[in-house]
Predict the structure of MFS transporter.
Amino acid sequence: MTTAEQTPTRTQEPATPDRSRWMAVCVVTLGTFLLVTAEQLPIGLLTTVGSALSVSEGTAGLMVTVPSVVAGVAAPLVPMIVGSLDRRILLLGLMALMTVANLGSALAPNFAVLVGSRVLVGIAVGGFWAVAAGLAVRLVTPADVPRATAVIFGGVGAANVFGVPLGTLIGDMTGWRIAFSSLSALALVTLIALLAVLPRLVASQAIRPKVLMEQLRNPGVRVGIIATALLVFGHFAAYTFVSPALQKLSGIDERYVGPLLFGFGAAGMIGNFLAGAALSRRVHRNVLTIAVAMTAAMPLFLLLGRIAIGGAILLIVWGLAFGGVSVGLQTWMIKAAPQAVEAASSLWVAVFNLSIGFGALTGGIIVDKLTLQGVLWLGGASALLAALAIWTARTNDAVR
């Protein structure tokens, strides 16, 4: 018996809905699309912003690092701070904050103000994800939860495939301030849509530090957190440097790297929905399959990726596998802690975001101090450890 099952009266989630609210699911998906686009857009604007505000590209990179770290901290803190506040009101407030934050970025007179606005973006991202990650159980019937979770996380893939490239294009054509202004306008549209379609989302109980710690005593949640940390850390340690890997290891011309990365993102979207469909049947088996696929894809670059076609195929396989990570592990957390979905989800979101930052940082150190091949070995080894952790939960009925 898990900890969540032992203490239902303290962390019980509201009753499941008697009908599925797909319009609300779609609007939450628009929110996740916006969040990821806002978090990652500066990647495509580093040089432009750095030049305009007289800072180096390395310093401009703080526009990406700061919100990721802040989001990791905000994910568990925001639900604790707001207590039993209606989650509908919380989501509306966070989307309003996102609207103001991006407007602040667009109007920033100097880099310090711009970074300050990115702190607000991080708070909005972490707080919104902490609630939205497990929101499917509040909006649809139990049978539709895996599919609704896949739809919500589809916003992540859409942001990588369409949002960030389109935002970068707008920035290149009209200026980086217009790109951030566009994000602010989209956030306002999302705010209005959330106001129109979200039902009242009563919090059954405020999340306290004790409740969060209780989740770590739940074996299923603990394995999910460990697997998330390892998979996301390993992925971003390697994927951050996938462009030089494609060029130097696979011999692919720089002109084709962009289209291949678009292919990676498209494969990720496909993987997200394939995983969502499969997870309705066997959660443990499918999450283990995802981890094993990532274990193979990254190190195989060093063998089969030595030619262009091999590198391209492995990149697509990698994208398909990683596309299922978010929906797979979030579904795992829902299954492992059905009585404490929001608490478990906030921990999961925190670990996910922090692992992004630490993975990219570690990968950079390895590339600078050792070799480019080292990050692919690290990514594969991390995925292997995640697969082993997932395998140990094979007898846990909650996540089978």
Summary: Residues 274 and 324 are 8 Å apart (CA to CA).
